[in-house]
Amino acid sequence: MGNTLTATAFDRYELREELLNALAAKGFDSPMPVQEKVLESENRDGDLVVQARTGSGKTLGFLLPLLNELPRETATPRILVLSPTRELAQQIAGEAEWIGKYMGITTASLVGGMDMERQIKDLRRGSALVVGTPGRTMDHIRRRTLKTDTIQTIVLDEGDTMLDMGFRDDIEAILNTLPDPHRTWLFSATMPDEVASLTKRYLDSPSWITLCHDEDQHEDITHRAYLVPSGKRLEGLVNVLLWENPEMGLIFCHTKAGTVETMERLQEEGFAASALHGDMSQLERNSVMNAFRQGRIPYLVATNVAARGLDVQGVSHVIQIGLPDNLETFVHRSGRTGRAGQEGRNILVLTPREKGRFKAMLRASSMDLKWANVPDVAEIAKAQRGLRESALLGGDEPDQEIQAWADELLDMMAPRDLVARLLESYVNGLPNGYDLRKSLQNELENRRSGRDRGDRFSGRDRNRSPRRNENRGNRSSFRGRAQSIKLSKGRIDQDWSVGRILATVCQALDVDRNEVGNIRMRDNHTEVELGPLAADRMNGNGANKLSKWGLMDGSSQNQERNTKPSQGRRRWER
């Protein structure tokens, strides 16, 4: 291979040319701190413990030095990486694929929920790097389809999470099958007692690299706690989302039932949301995760267990509903945002009763967390107005067709009256959230006076049209040819809402929300306007997918029709 490299900060680590070429092809010119520390470690031949956050670049931190030592085209297992979840294991395997592609190194991925025979075939083909979850890896060892006698290095990635998920027995069983000598590298965001115990028992005089401490505040993450009235936590969450306006939000609940309830409520409110919990099949999980990663579903509601090991780029907000089990959990969840130097926001939604208990957790930490009452209707309306003013004043210049239309309208009406009517149409029906100010003030006053008796405030005090969820305008009308489809669910189907239909159509057709126009719910059916790309997908296999999800039957599949775009031509934003 000819030398095609330009000088980068990676050059000083004596990495082989194949790895440097792979880094250059990805545009990586300098290591992240965890990569730098591991590459500079003087004891890489021995055991190693690295405390670094999820999303800090630690995957390349162990792949670069380990692959650097491998002979080209090695076909026997030399490196075994254990990871807590299927998704994280598959991400590590994907990283190994591109960083090792010029070396002829292949990777076997051993995860549950995937075809066992395919994994056996990959192992027989010969793989120098094996990445797996503890349970499935142990299955292969028992079947003798994975032989560990050639393993030189084992990496325990997200060690705290694996132990927290109950994998200790499998991890110890795997460690006990490895030959002597071998080296063990442990990567963990936190160092609870169980991790320390495993380290003491199985690692021999390890070197330590510490880039964070258990209660440290991530410098790229701001922390805020919003107080909401007892009994109105989900209404408070709606207000928080309207106020914070996340681009991509990961919402944590304590239970599976909580994730489903929260997802359904958000869908009712017009937010495209999906749930992630332990009862989902791998196919369902993959579908939800792909939609979330691609931005088609901007809100993912998950249990702590289901989200462990989750590594998704671009999460702008982590939102935690209710009191976390401990400060460690609160900090660990927050690590899903603020990745790769981007700013992130970690939001906690608590009742006044929970505030004191959480403040007690914070006493052992230097974390800078701001407290605020949940934003109210007037505050949200003002913020929404500011967002829309920015969109109007800062957007691209309208095309000639729109400008000509504007001239025609100005000839018919005074400019001020025209702008007023357009603004009224523009903001009509925009959600302003729930009026929670009085309920929260009453509860806070009752607590100060000692008259608090728990969750006394319930019900809905809404500042919105009662039929808001029956129709949804689109973000941008389709000027070209659009297609309207009729779905078999309507208002009489209580499990379906505009938000759920929007989320399902986007997921089934594999399109962004901007490809879905007006959604009109009738008593026994729903009409949905599709943009050009969505229409193409619909005419492909989309109808079959929607049928499987219960949204189309034989009659509704024959109801598709071509329509002109909405005459209002207004832009719609949530």
UniProtKB/TrEMBL annotation:
<feature type="short sequence motif" description="Q motif">
    <location>
        <begin position="8"/>
        <end position="36"/>
    </location>
</feature>
<keyword id="KW-0547">Nucleotide-binding</keyword>
<dbReference type="InterPro" id="IPR014014">
    <property type="entry name" value="RNA_helicase_DEAD_Q_motif"/>
</dbReference>
<feature type="domain" description="Helicase C-terminal">
    <location>
        <begin position="233"/>
        <end position="388"/>
    </location>
</feature>
<dbReference type="InterPro" id="IPR014001">
    <property type="entry name" value="Helicase_ATP-bd"/>
</dbReference>
<feature type="domain" description="DEAD-box RNA helicase Q">
    <location>
        <begin position="8"/>
        <end position="36"/>
    </location>
</feature>
<dbReference type="GO" id="GO:0003676">
    <property type="term" value="F:nucleic acid binding"/>
</dbReference>
<dbReference type="InterPro" id="IPR011545">
    <property type="entry name" value="DEAD/DEAH_box_helicase_dom"/>
</dbReference>
<dbReference type="Pfam" id="PF00270">
    <property type="entry name" value="DEAD"/>
</dbReference>
<feature type="compositionally biased region" description="Polar residues">
    <location>
        <begin position="554"/>
        <end position="566"/>
    </location>
</feature>
<dbReference type="GO" id="GO:0005829">
    <property type="term" value="C:cytosol"/>
</dbReference>
<feature type="domain" description="Helicase ATP-binding">
    <location>
        <begin position="39"/>
        <end position="209"/>
    </location>
</feature>
<comment type="similarity">
    <text>Belongs to the DEAD box helicase family.</text>
</comment>
<feature type="region of interest" description="Disordered">
    <location>
        <begin position="535"/>
        <end position="574"/>
    </location>
</feature>
<dbReference type="InterPro" id="IPR027417">
    <property type="entry name" value="P-loop_NTPase"/>
</dbReference>
<feature type="region of interest" description="Disordered">
    <location>
        <begin position="444"/>
        <end position="483"/>
    </location>
</feature>
<dbReference type="InterPro" id="IPR001650">
    <property type="entry name" value="Helicase_C-like"/>
</dbReference>
<dbReference type="Pfam" id="PF00271">
    <property type="entry name" value="Helicase_C"/>
</dbReference>
<protein>
    <submittedName>
        <fullName>DEAD/DEAH box helicase domain protein</fullName>
    </submittedName>
</protein>
<dbReference type="GO" id="GO:0003724">
    <property type="term" value="F:RNA helicase activity"/>
</dbReference>
<dbReference type="InterPro" id="IPR050079">
    <property type="entry name" value="DEAD_box_RNA_helicase"/>
</dbReference>
<keyword id="KW-0347">Helicase</keyword>
<feature type="compositionally biased region" description="Basic and acidic residues">
    <location>
        <begin position="444"/>
        <end position="473"/>
    </location>
</feature>
<dbReference type="GO" id="GO:0016787">
    <property type="term" value="F:hydrolase activity"/>
</dbReference>
<keyword id="KW-0378">Hydrolase</keyword>
<dbReference type="InterPro" id="IPR044742">
    <property type="entry name" value="DEAD/DEAH_RhlB"/>
</dbReference>
<dbReference type="GO" id="GO:0005524">
    <property type="term" value="F:ATP binding"/>
</dbReference>
<keyword id="KW-0067">ATP-binding</keyword>
